[in-house]
Amino acid sequence: ARSRFDIRFYPVSIFFLIPDPEVTFSSPWAVPTNKTDSFGFWSMMAFFLILTIGSIYEWKRGASDR
């Protein structure tokens, strides 16, 4: 049987689910920079740039204020 849950739970769950892929994708890059080549470095920078742009966009829209 399914039970109903409070809709206020949804933003809290999203708040905890969004960082999971970020941690998963950034874990392999947690190695010394002298062990990675330039492609690895720039792919890491592109990934974090996309995350930063998305975070700024959500912050400007007030997505976390709901």
Automatic annotation (TrEMBL):
Keywords: Electron transport, Membrane, Mitochondrion, NAD, Respiratory chain, Translocase, Transmembrane, Transmembrane helix, Transport, Ubiquinone. One of its GO terms (molecular function) is NADH dehydrogenase (ubiquinone) activity. Belongs to the complex I subunit 3 family. Core subunit of the mitochondrial membrane respiratory chain NADH dehydrogenase (Complex I) that is believed to belong to the minimal assembly required for catalysis. Complex I functions in the transfer of electrons from NADH to the respiratory chain. The immediate electron acceptor for the enzyme is believed to be ubiquinone. Core subunit of the mitochondrial membrane respiratory chain NADH dehydrogenase (Complex I) which catalyzes electron transfer from NADH through the respiratory chain, using ubiquinone as an electron acceptor. Essential for the catalytic activity of complex I. It is an enzyme of class 7 (translocase). It comes from Pogoniopsis schenckii. The gene is nad3. Its main location: membrane. This is NADH-ubiquinone oxidoreductase chain 3. Pfam families: Oxidored_q4. GO terms for cellular component: mitochondrial membrane; NADH dehydrogenase complex. InterPro entries: NADH_UbQ/plastoQ_OxRdtase_su3, NDAH_ubi_oxred_su3_sf. It catalyses: a ubiquinone + NADH + 5 H(+)(in) = a ubiquinol + NAD(+) + 4 H(+)(out). The chain crosses the membrane at residues 39-57. Gene3D superfamilies: NADH:ubiquinone/plastoquinone oxidoreductase, chain 3. It is a multi-pass membrane protein. It comes from the Eukaryota. It is found in: Membrane; Mitochondrion membrane. Its EC number is 7.1.1.2.
